Amino acid sequence: MNTTSRNYWSLYVEFLEAFKDLKYKGFSIPYLCHFRSLNHRNNYIWEHLSSEEFIKSLSHEVKDKKTMQQIFSSYKQTHINRKGSKLFKKASHANGKVVLYDVYNLMRFPKEIMTKHFPSADTIFLQDYNPKEQPKVIEGIPEAGIPSHYLDEYRVNVSSNIQILKGKVDEIISTYTDHPMFNNETFKQYFYMQIEGIVNRIEETNRYFRMNPVSCIVFSSTHYYQSRTIAMVAAEMGIPTICMQHGIIGDEIGYMPKIADVDAVYSNFEVNWFKQLGLSDQAVEIIGHPRFDAIHQGPSISKNELEKQLELKPNKKMILMIVRGKIQMEKWETFIDNFDGIDNYNIVIKDFRYLKPHELTAKSPDVYPSKHFQLYDLIHHSDLVVSYISTVGLEAMIAKKPVFVLSTPFPTYTGYFDFLGELAQPDPLIITEMINNYFIDEKFKELVEEKREAFLSQAYPAAKPSGDRLVDLINRLAN
């Protein structure tokens, strides 16, 4: 465990211990929080997290990640079918529905998967509130015909309870002086917001489960307080839960601690990673992800039409370049500015989350924005993909494309792409050289293909479609 990781998880445990007696309906509030966002605007923490001196400002120290996971596993265990629970009893499981809860639109189940595996008579799409406008369909969620239920319709007035909890927070904070987290002016603001959301969510979820029979819940993530609270209430009421893996486990902070009964993961990489945290074989299962099933369906547009609409130059290899905002901006600029023979390629930039042209598209006449085109269409029609440490690298390899990763490791990086060897590295100039070699050197091209196949054998092994495997898991847990 490096210094940054030790400091981060130690600070997390310090938060849990300081506020552990802050409870509502028997649930310790800090265990349900989204920890990272509590420090979203605390520049001091992020600037000093890698310092050896930081730990001296804390009274708790975590020396391994396994300890951190065990703390949460023990907490959850105290709530599983808890005797003396302050919650209402759940509705009968007879004809219980499968509930999908898609926090922050991370589920991304394709329409075809929804139609095939989640019939409207047996499925509920659970949302936080009833949107005033028709919700935008994101990768098939919500699917036409599948009924939506809204948690805010089960809300009750608990404002007085929330005020009492806020008062207790003030009392606890007053006992600290110069604490890097608790005495930061933004901490209390964000903690208050999450307390309010968690208390309301406990009440909403409990009432929902009392009135609606649920056989199983599938989450896109349990990292956020909205979904984590549902998962913990479900545990206490005896409702099984599954958490999908919404992206590669590149950063440990995004996937610890594990909360759901079963995490549906991509491969043995994740199974082994979770086992290192002390989790049992039953806690994780290789499912893959249903959205990856769509990769094998082929593009929805012809290559000629795509090139025409992107206004690409004819008879050139297309390189799909995956970036994320301004992250690694200097390296991507070096990649473009020093790409010997760049005029032999059409470089199409896909910026994560954004449709507007990335500023790098102005660097060269051979660089183009991806416009409105879907990622999988761009992958299918590309000749090569270069990416930051992103799930797109895995998706492109599943689509049988050569992939190079501009891999700049960070302190909490899991080493996900290390198995690619030199194909994943921090030097953009070496990557440009390898790209050129790929198109002129058959032996190197064969080496890249061998590495792709070897990587997939451990990162996403071939098996029956992920949608089928997920349904098998749901049926097993629900019955």
TrEMBL record:
Q: What is this protein called?
A: Uncharacterized protein
Entry superkingdom: Bacteria
**InterPro entries xref list:** TagF_C
